[in-house]
Amino acid sequence: DQQVKQNSPSLSVQEGRISILNCDYTNSMFDYFLWYKKYPAEGPTFLISISSIKDKNEDGRFTVFLNKSAKHLSLHIVPSQPGDSAVYFCAASVYGGSQGNLIFGKGTKLSVKP
Amino acid sequence: DAMVIQNPRYQVTQFGKPVTLSCSQTLNHNVMYWYQQKSSQAPKLLFHYYDKDFNNEADTPDNFQSRRPNTSFCFLDIRSPGLGDAAMYLCATSVTVTTYEQYFGPGTRLTVT
User: Chain B residue with minimal CA distance to A3?
Assistant: First the structure.
């Protein structure tokens, strides 16, 4: 059973608008969440993260929101740029759990149209 | 630039013929991971090394083995590849096991004929 779910396989957004990528999780023991971005022919690269003690973390154009009661997190990209077009993976981890184990979602392919 | 390197980028092997994928890192990280990612699926952790300590995920098939001869290199050995083992194999590193951020290589795409 998938513990981390990204229910939208793809998302298309106009340049300059907001992109919102969603992620749901089922394991209430997860206490740290990360977003990775992946371009074709490259490995995933770390984008932004959030600890369960926070509900928001911001880094430039990227903001991650965490709603623990709903077991939901989202990544907001404002404004979206064509270079943001990539696959975005949500990942979760349990501190002190299976060491080093990141549980990934299946990814959402974002296309930002000029 | 410090990085994670995977060779080869593309590997074709025959059904049942052993194959080895390699990963090297210049980050001097203590932990190295191997993930399997099948088409349109989430990357799935196979195992990881914390220094020389090997940690196997419970559901990783016995067909998959790993070696880490030194800090910089880690190998994934598939003893008898089946058609179901065709996938992208991603190597990653992190400073320690309590460091959540992992740094990924570009992956090796394995085809089994």
Answer: B42
